[in-house]
């Protein structure tokens, strides 16, 4: 499938880190003038991990210079390698949720750009690695899921961090992705492109499930990432194996909207990455290049950004050719779109680098 090139490509800055970059996220603004990112780094030689706040700087004050650099301002050492990383802003104060491969969840606060403080931890809430965590937007509660089939709610209160096992499949179901839709509802994903919708007010199991075999057995895989747009909480976006990106609309539960990947009928549908894993998907809030009126209808999918194992960062729209933003000779493992400046994207490259893109 052809991939459309932008008429004006984004400015790309590649910044070597000399450690493996497990995850990257923009940090909510600490001050009006500064910009910061959070990196989860792994030193394969020493076997140690760090979570670091980096300042995004222009090292040359000359106005004609567009070079950028990342400068470490604060660091925190987790008990084991980081498996998932999320950020939010709570009371004008940035918070960071970190999960690890030993099954623990930690909540950190950025007191300022030079101070990263652990507010509390929920140790070994999973029997094995935590697959994914997500923070409630503007809240102090985190959902965590794992291959052990557990779904946990981790909360930050006055006395520290507490955890509650919301559901346990006892290993019968494996979860790999999670995303809040509201303070009471969230979605999870796992093997077989399955999705589950949960309501914390209705414990005991998911209130709805998506299990339709829309690939007719020609593709099996796993959901790696989920996103839910704040204005369309009835639609769950998912990305996973075989270049698959699809949306599950709770109003038409067994009719997924296929954006990329293997579909029923004649093979691929606008697939940007046919045989590769889609590691992360996010709704793209930067729609300057598109006609915003096209997305006013609730039946039209909003643009989606994705990154993949075969090194593609692209924007995918319903019934349109994908628009390639970056193509690398190594995997792009994670990315994040700046909520304050949606034209800016930060992503982690498998070859121990961070890339920052500024779209025109």
TrEMBL record:
SUPFAM superfamilies: WD40 repeat-like. Keywords: Nucleus, Repeat, WD repeat. InterPro entries: WD40/YVTN_repeat-like_dom_sf (IPR015943), WD40_repeat_dom_sf (IPR036322), WD40_rpt (IPR001680). GO terms for cellular component: nuclear pore outer ring. It comes from the Eukaryota. It is found in: Nucleus. PANTHER family: NUCLEOPORIN NUP43 (PTHR22652:SF0). This is Uncharacterized protein.
């Amino acid at each position: 499938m052809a991939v459309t090139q932008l008429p004006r490509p984004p400015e790309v800055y590649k910044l070597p880190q000399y450690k493996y970059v497990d995850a990257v996220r923009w940090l909510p603004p600490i001050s009006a003038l500064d910009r910061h990112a959070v990196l989860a780094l792994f030193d394969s030689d020493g076997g140690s991990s760090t979570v670091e706040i980096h300042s995004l700087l222009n090292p040359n004050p000359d106005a004609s210079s567009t070079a950028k650099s990342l400068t470490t301002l604060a660091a925190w050492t987790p008990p084991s390698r980081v498996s998932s990383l999320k950020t939010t802003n709570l009371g004008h104060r940035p918070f960071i949720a970190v999960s690890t491969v030993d099954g623990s969840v930690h909540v950190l606060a950025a007191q300022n750009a030079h101070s990263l403080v652990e507010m509390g931890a929920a140790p070994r809430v999973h029997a094995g690695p935590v697959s994914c965590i997500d923070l409630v937007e503007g809240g102090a509660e985190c959902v965590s899921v794992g291959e052990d089939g557990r779904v946990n709610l981790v909360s930050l209160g006055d006395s520290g961090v507490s955890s509650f096992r919301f559901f346990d499949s006892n290993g019968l179901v494996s979860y790999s992705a999670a995303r809040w839709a509201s303070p009471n509802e969230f979605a999870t994903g796992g093997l077989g492109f399955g999705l589950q919708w949960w309501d914390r007010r209705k414990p005991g199991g998911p209130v709805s499930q998506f299990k339709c075999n829309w690939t007719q057995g020609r593709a099996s895989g796993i959901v790696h990432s989920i996103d839910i747009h704040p204005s369309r909480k009835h639609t769950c976006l998912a990305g996973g194996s075989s270049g698959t990106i699809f949306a599950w609309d709770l109003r038409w539960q067994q009719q997924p909207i296929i954006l990329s990947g293997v579909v029923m009928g004649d093979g691929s549908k606008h697939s940007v990455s046919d045989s590769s894993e889609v590691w992360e998907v996010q709704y793209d809030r930067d729609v300057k290049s598109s006609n915003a009126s096209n997305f006013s209808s609730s039946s039209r999918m909003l643009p989606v950004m994705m990154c993949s194992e075969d090194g593609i960062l692209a924007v995918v729209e319903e019934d349109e050719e994908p628009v390639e933003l970056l193509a690398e000779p190594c995997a792009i493992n994670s990315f994040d779109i700046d909520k304050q400046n949606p034209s800016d994207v930060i992503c982690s490259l498998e070859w121990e680098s961070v890339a920052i893109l500024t779209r025109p």
